[in-house]
Amino acid sequence: xxxxxxxxxxxxxxxxxxxxxxxxxxxxxxxxxxxxxxxxxxxxxxxxxxxxxxxxxxxxxxxxxxxxxxxxxxxxxxxxxxxxxxxxxxxxxxxxxxxxxxxxxxxxxxxxxxxxxxxxxxxxxxxxxxxxxxxxxxxx
Length: 140
Fold this sequence. Notes:
Layout: H1 8-29, E1 33-39, E2 43-48, E3 53-57, H2 58-63, H3 68-71, E4 92-98, E5 102-107, E6 115-117, H4 118-124
Antiparallel strand pairs: 1-2, 2-3, 4-5, 5-6
């Protein structure tokens, strides 16, 4: 049997398939969360597909919010507590999945425009494995 001739549309289809595969493969190999949950009102726990466990203190995540307003250095807007009431700590009120790439967090200070991509979350992981302590250089 003779092989089918490669027509221009088959060549184009093969090229598109190759480009899709090249663009899609890095995303498949990057770890993604298998679970995200609040730990009381103190922090957020993320379990990753590669077995890693990240625990993010609320204040740390909020201070590293990736939204445009926070990145431009605008001051954080925290609401004043009611007089006579106990001061409340910053807490994650709601955590939402954003597509297949991120989570959105609504904070108790009413800030909710930050979308934390999985890549950003992993880079922000505060554990000793991900953020090794900087070695102090001593002068001789």
